[in-house]
Design goal:
By secondary structure, the protein is of the alpha/beta class. It has 18 helices and 14 strands. The longest helix has 32 residues.
């Protein structure tokens, strides 16, 4: 089939490359000319394991191309995907649908024959209906269907998530579009992937409900970690004990500094605002948003306490800046709260992240970015692990101790064992675990 993907960002580029790998002819369209030129040169605008080779293979096969010209890329398409950003709107927290609606207007002007318009962006309930209304107003004679097909891609594992998903959700309002969506996802039918066909509103809400539930699990175990610290319990064992219950499951039960990233913060907030609009407030999700915001801000206090109550003039080494490993995404990362709070109390920050330093440099001022973890630790009064990159999991503890001015480790991801660190002469602090 012929597919046009509007937006060559994280969702659009990954989805476009994977659809091309399914055998479809895909063109990714983006208004950012510099991004298009880089993609044509094989340079990826994001860090995602496996994406560069997947793009290169499908470009070479002639199934994937890039363009800045929507008019030239859309008329022959069987399906046009809207995969543009929907950030939180400044001032009120609602999802900003400006780019989605602009895309709808532009699509309407170039439609030629029956086309399925697919909203891949994460959008509130009712967005699909508005996209349909915009196209009808612009081109009353156009033949089209508007479908909701939310993405469930984890940064760092997006290609596998697209090709081997837990499920595919498709929201439709007519029978004609179902055949197109079935053909697009035909390879997944062969793999017996569950494909959930429902109406548009349900599909739109499924995405928000899923992210809100996962964010709730993270926030829940973080609160259990706080209790563990008061009573001498071990949060990792609590998580295992409850996670073995099939009704609960063990995923997203890892205590830490709070969730961040491109999805959970904005999607939980958007769901809260949507629910309030429809006079159906989600008190649980409201609490999750508030608790997570406060938790990230409190993490700096842990560092100060571990350093004896003052960090004025001290060098604090920070390992990990992105909100999670295997991505360069800094959006709502806990580091954006922790580092400025440490600096406000007089700390000098040295930091290293395997992929996020370029992005971080535009967001965090007065940080001494280093070339590796050991360079970061040299002469430090304490080290804070914010992101659990694999290369931080097996540090040479003897070398760590010899490099640091005072061997104090604040492990906000619980990637080390307390006994191991203490035996090595490192003063060790973690989340929700007794020493």
């Amino acid at each position: 089939m012929r597919v046009t993907m509007i937006g060559a960002g994280y969702v659009g580029l990954v989805s476009g490359a994977c659809f091309a790998d399914f055998g479809h002819d895909v063109v990714c369209v983006d208004k950012d000319e510099a991004k298009i030129r880089k993609l044509e040169d094989g340079v990826m605008p994001i860090y995602e394991p496996g994406l560069e080779s997947l793009v290169a293979e499908n470009v070479k096969a002639g199934r994937l191309s890039f363009s800045g010209d929507l008019a030239a890329s859309t008329p022959d398409a069987d399906a046009v995907f809207i995969a543009v950003g929907t950030p939180s709107r400044r001032g009120d927290g609602f999802a900003d649908l400006t780019y989605v609606y602009q895309a709808a207007e532009e699509i309407a002007t170039v439609l030629d024959g029956y086309t399925v318009i697919v909203t891949k962006s994460t959008v509130p309930v009712g967005t699909g209906a508005e996209v349909e209304a915009i196209i009808k107003r612009t081109r009353p004679e156009a033949e089209f269907s508007v479908v909701s097909n939310p993405e469930f891609l984890r940064e760092g594992a997006a290609i596998n998530d697209f090709k081997r998903p837990d499920r595919v959700v498709v929201g439709v309002e007519d029978e004609r579009s179902i055949a197109v969506m079935r053909e697009l996802y035909r390879p997944l039918y062969l793999n017996e992937t569950p494909v959930v066909f429902t109406n548009r509103s349900t599909s739109e809400l499924i995405k928000y409900a899923a992210n809100a539930f996962l964010a709730t699990k993270i926030t829940f175990i973080n609160e259990m970690a706080d209790i563990c610290e008061k009573v001498g319990a071990n949060v990792q064992e609590v998580a295992r004990g409850i996670g073995l219950d099939g009704r609960i499951g063990g995923k997203f039960l890892h205590a830490g500094p709070g969730y961040g990233g491109s999805c959970f913060p904005k999607d939980t907030l958007a769901l809260v605002k949507t629910a309030q609009t429809y006079d159906a407030p989600t008190k649980i999700v409201e609490a999750v948003v508030d608790i997570n915001d406060r938790r990230k801000k409190r993490m700096a206090d842990r560092v100060v306490a571990a350093c004896g109550g003052s960090i004025d003039g001290k060098k604090i080494a920070v390992l990990g800046l992105t909100f999670k490993p295997n991505t360069d995404d800094m959006r709502d990362s806990p580091s954006l709260d922790i580092i400025p709070a440490l600096q406000a109390q007089g700390a000098k920050i040295a930091a290293f992240d395997p992929a996020g330093m370029e992005e971080a440099s535009g967001l965090l001022a007065s940080v001494d970015y280093k070339e590796g973890p050991y360079q970061t630790l040299d002469g430090a009064d304490a080290v804070v692990i914010i992101t659990e990159w694999d290369e931080f999991r097996a540090l040479d503890v003897a070398r760590v101790k010899s490099l640091m001015k005072t061997p104090i480790m604040i492990d906000l991801r619980n990637i080390y064992g307390a006994a191991e660190m203490i035996a090595s002469g490192v003063e060790y602090h973690s989340i929700g675990r007794p020493l």
